Amino acid sequence: MGLSRGHLSRLVNAYRQDGATALVSRRRGRPSNSKISETLQMQVCAIVREHYSDFGPTLAAEYLAERHAITVSRETLRKWMVADGIWTTRAANEDQH
Fold it and tell me: 11 with 3: CB under 8 angstroms?
């Protein structure tokens, strides 16, 4: 299973004490500690919409880093651009044709 003996022992004890609910992560349903704030997301989308609306996510991420000192992964930026309607996926483009 890839678990140490001590960790497996803790899981078994928790299961015996609280049942199956003890095996579910207590962080479930909470935002990630590394989640980027919605304020920054809105600022980035506004910059992209104003200056880089005809760019793809990779090039837009490079320009954001170079010109605005904002580092966001291209995949995160792609998700934000799709959600904001700035960028369309290939699948969405193929559905339109």
Answer: yes
Among the listed residues 44, 64, 57, the one whose alpha carbon sits nearest the alpha carbon of residue 88: 57
Structural contact between residues 41 and 73, judged by C-beta atoms closer than 8 angstroms? no
Nearest to 43 by CA among 79, 82, 80: 80
Q: What is the DSSP letter of 55?
A: S
pLDDT in tens, 34-54: 888 999 999 999 999 999 989
Residue 34, CB-side half-sphere exposure with 13 Å CA sphere: 3
Q: How far apart are CA 48 and CA 44, in angstroms?
A: 6
